[in-house]
Write a structure and sequence with these properties.
By secondary structure, the chain is of the alpha/beta class. Helix content is about 30%, strand content about 25%.
């Protein structure tokens, strides 16, 4: 490529208090087994809002924020490679799995770096510099080649949101035999709708936001239902009183989670994807007597994310269809303000915008 790499770059940090802080930083140099990416797209995640943007809620755990460059949904182009790198070269387009684990524990051996419990575990944008900068260093063990059909914005969508939705649908073994209800139509819920449809299922979306219900219709939901006290009866009516084979909660709310258990049919699957919150329910009528399987699901593995990339390429699906707002890097503060309204689809920083 022979691209001139500058010495300094613009980066964005999240100091708390609903603020974004820009900084001039040194452009990092890739070490052994690493590549330097020129960032092309980086999307915002609900966990950025919940755990960092408003306030730093976790001081010691995996959601701890160490005053690094923010952003954990990176997609970019390799502009420099470190020693020992054989599977990536300058010019390659990549999407990045957003956590590097220790590499030796059971979960890392399975590719679920997200579940690594060792002190070496570091997430991009949380404990190591992330995607909201002009350049980012990434370990090649977290990099996945991006096919030509998929744009850099698509790659950023895959990095966390679509991977999380995909893993949840895999947990429920979703196929063309199923009706799937998705509770909560934020970006992960929208991804779940798109992927459930691609897997052949009938998809029902539920949310309290008219804007998000309209978006779910646009991206292919078979039915949308206004969230609230009548949502369960409406979903039951849509399924001739039988309920759905799979109910996926992306809301993180106690009401949403409870309603997923209510609408799941006998022998069905319920998946909890939405973070935080609580839920209380009676196990006998809602879980035991219906022979339900209740799954917790958290992000995905590197291997499954690689398979997701192949699936999207094969089905010719653009995850970027759920983007409603785009901003250049220098307007990251505006991007977070808009995203915090709760009325958007995905909000993306497009590094190629002026």
């Amino acid at each position: 490529m022979n691209q001139q790499i500058p010495k300094k770059m613009l980066g964005m940090k999240l100091p708390g208090g609903a603020k974004v802080e820009s900084c001039e930083c040194d452009v990092p140099v890739p070490g052994h087994g690493q590549v330097l990416l020129k960032m092309k797209a980086a999307s915002l995640c609900g966990s950025d809002l919940k755990y960092i943007y408003f306030e730093h809620t976790d001081k010691t755990g995996g959601a701890r924020y160490d005053n690094v460059i923010a952003g954990h949904e990176p997609s970019g182009q390799v502009v420099s490679v470190g020693e020992g790198v054989t599977d990536f070269k300058e010019g390659d387009r990549v999407v990045v799995y957003h956590i590097q684990g220790c590499g030796y524990c059971d979960e890392c051996k399975k590719g679920f770096f997200i579940n690594c419990q060792q002190p070496q575990r570091r997430a991009y944008g949380w404990q190591r510099d992330g995607a909201l900068a002009e350049y980012m260093v990434a370990d090649t063990s977290t990099c996945i080649h991006l096919p030509d059909f998929l744009t850099y914005e698509d790659g950023a969508m895959i990095a966390c949101g679509f991977g999380t939705a995909y893993q949840g649908l895999l947990r429920a073994n979703v196929s063309g035999r199923d009706v799937v209800m998705v509770m909560g139509l934020g970006p992960v819920g929208q991804a779940a709708i798109m992927l459930a449809k691609a897997m052949g299922a009938k998809a029902i979306g539920v949310d309290i936001s008219p804007e998000r219900l309209e978006m779910a219709k646009r991206i292919g939901a078979d039915e949308v239902v206004q969230g609230g006290e009548h949502a369960v009866s409406e979903v039951m009516n849509l399924t001739e009183g039988k309920g759905v084979e799979a109910a996926v909660d992306c809301s993180g709310s106690s009401i949403g989670r409870h309603q997923c258990l209510e609408v799941a049919r006998m022998w069905g699957n319920v998946v909890f994807l939405g973070e935080q919150g609580t839920v209380t329910f009676e196990p006998s009528p809602l879980l035991l007597h219906k022979n339900l399987t209740l799954h917790g699901s958290w992000v995905t593995s590197v291997g499954n994310m690689e398979r997701l990339v192949e699936f999207l390429d094969r089905k010719k699906i653009h995850p970027s269809d759920i983007i409603t707002h785009r901003f250049p890097l220098k307007e990251t503060d505006k991007a977070f303000e808009v995203f915090a309204t709760g009325k958007t689809g995905k909000v993306c920083i497009n590094h190629e915008m002026e």
